[in-house]
């Protein structure tokens, strides 16, 4: 009998569990050669004979093993943005994370983000439909192959009702198949239950024409802004959707870049900005930006000037990935989806460009009368030949401001 099996985990308080971990479990794991610089997985803890702690935490303390390990020092470097899968089965969570680490190494982190969201949707729905989240255990027994095929099909049937497009359905199916393939190749699963489902054919008649570059609607941006819980979230939505910044530009914003006084508030990027002007006009919500600066200045000399400071980061500010993660959490709270998937930060920037084009069209529509008086059928002639550069800029910004107000000035 292992030492872990002799421990009555269920009778311990949380403090006693923490003490037992520090004095017995962790030293034993280290003696067995486990590298404790990284958080141990459930499988590693179970293999060492301590699986009972996970059951006790779940049943008596409403915690997962991951939650508990954070209380004894295993905190991720960016734990406030750590992903919560919404299930309890530690084996499934560990294999999902292992799969996504491989995706990140082979491809891009943004690809892993999208897969993470879709797989989380799948495993939560699987749990809701079948009253179990032990997805990995289900594919370790070859005798369950036919039964598990039917289980996966029933989850996909439920998923279909929540998705708006054929392409979204195919992306979900592809990710689910890829995850099960990972279980077969890396974790000893006996079969891939998603390999032979015929939902790609079943869904084929739902294939509409979709835009190559989907964007957010004005109503969706308003919902995102209304769902922002604090000033950081609001400024992230504003930075992406109202100012048209890239997520890395939002993350690294510094007070020295900002000019808020006068009639031309703007952000100065200089020559280092990629594929765009070095100056970005702040057409909307300058007051909220100024209030954020006032609040940060109250911190005194410890504030280094960044609008999104981070004590954990070597740069002194949050990362673009953190901006992306927070934007996605806001979208989850707002229940905003674009063709069945959560919006990316790039869609916020795309909304800005789309809205700006509409504002220019609004301006041209209003110049029709003047154009007619000048004997021209093209209002752009008036815009180019009869208005100064300063006047053109002024009118474009006025129409853009109205468009942004329609999106952001929603009932809270």
Summary tags:
single chain, 19 helices, globular, three-stranded antiparallel sheet, 412 residues, mainly alpha
How does this structure look, described?
It is built from 19 helices and 3 strands. The protein has helices spanning 14-31, 42-47, 52-60, 65-71, 90-106, 109-130, 135-138, 145-162, 166-187, 199-202, 218-227, 231-242, 247-251, 286-297, 320-334, 345-366, 368-373, 379-385, 389-408, and strands spanning 258-259, 266-268, 279-281. Mean pLDDT is 80; it is low at 77-81.
The gist of it:
The chain is mostly helical and about 400 residues long. It is built from 19 helices and three strands. The radius of gyration is 26 Å and the shape is globular.
Largest sheet: 3 strands, antiparallel
Strand content: under 5%
The helix fraction, in percent, is: 55-70%
Number of helices: 19
> What would you call the structural class?
mainly alpha
Strand order of the largest sheet: 1-2-3
Task: Point out poorly predicted stretches.
Answer: 77-81
Mean pLDDT: 80
Instruction: Name the shape in a single word.
Output: globular
Count of individual beta strands = 3
- Span between N and C termini? 59 Å
Q: What is the CA-atom radius of gyration, in angstroms? A: 26 Å
- The H-and-E topology, N to C, reads as HHHHHHHHHHHHHEEEHHHHHH
């Amino acid at each position: 009998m292992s030492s872990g099996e002799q421990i009555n985990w269920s009778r311990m308080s949380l403090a006693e569990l923490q003490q037992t971990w520090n004095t017995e479990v962790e030293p034993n794991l280290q003696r067995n050669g486990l590298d404790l610089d990284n958080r141990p997985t459930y499988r590693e803890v179970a293999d060492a004979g301590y699986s009972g702690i996970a059951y006790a935490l779940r049943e008596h303390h409403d915690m997962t093993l991951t939650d508990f390990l954070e209380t004894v020092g295993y905190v991720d470097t960016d734990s406030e943005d750590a992903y919560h899968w919404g299930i309890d089965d530690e084996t499934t969570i560990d294999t999902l994370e292992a799969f996504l680490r491989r995706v990140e190494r082979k491809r891009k982190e943004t690809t892993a983000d999208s897969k993470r969201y879709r797989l989380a949707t799948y495993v939560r729905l699987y749990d809701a439909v079948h009253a179990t989240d032990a997805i990995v255990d289900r594919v370790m027994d070859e005798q369950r192959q036919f039964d598990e095929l039917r289980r996966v099909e029933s989850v996909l049937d439920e998923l279909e009702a929540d998705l708006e497009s054929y392409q979204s359905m195919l992306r979900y199916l592809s990710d689910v198949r890829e995850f099960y393939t990972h279980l077969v190749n890396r974790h000893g699963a006996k079969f891939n239950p998603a390999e032979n489902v015929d939902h790609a054919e079943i869904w084929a008649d739902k294939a509409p024409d979709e835009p190559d570059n989907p964007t957010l609607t004005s109503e969706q941006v308003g919902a995102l802004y209304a769902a922002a819980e604090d000033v950081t979230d609001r400024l992230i939505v504003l930075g992406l959707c109202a100012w048209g910044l890239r997520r890395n530009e939002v993350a690294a914003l510094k007070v020295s870049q900002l000019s808020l006084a006068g009639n031309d508030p703007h952000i100065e990027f200089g020559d280092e900005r990629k594929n765009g002007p070095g100056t970005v006009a702040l057409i909307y919500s300058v007051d909220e930006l100024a209030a954020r600066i006032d609040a940060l200045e109250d911190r005194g000399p410890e504030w280094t000037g960044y609008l999104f400071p981070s004590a954990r980061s070597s740069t002194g500010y949050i990362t673009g990935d953190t901006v992306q993660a927070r934007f996605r959490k806001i979208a989850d709270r707002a229940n905003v989806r674009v063709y069945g998937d959560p919006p990316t930060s790039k869609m916020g920037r795309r909304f800005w460009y789309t809205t700006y084009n509409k504002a220019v069209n609004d301006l041209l529509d209003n110049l029709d009368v003047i154009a007619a008086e000048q004997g021209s059928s093209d209002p752009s002639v008036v815009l180019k030949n009869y208005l100064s550069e300063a006047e053109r800029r002024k009118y474009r910004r006025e129409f853009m401001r109205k468009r942004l107000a329609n999106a952001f000035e929603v009932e809270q």
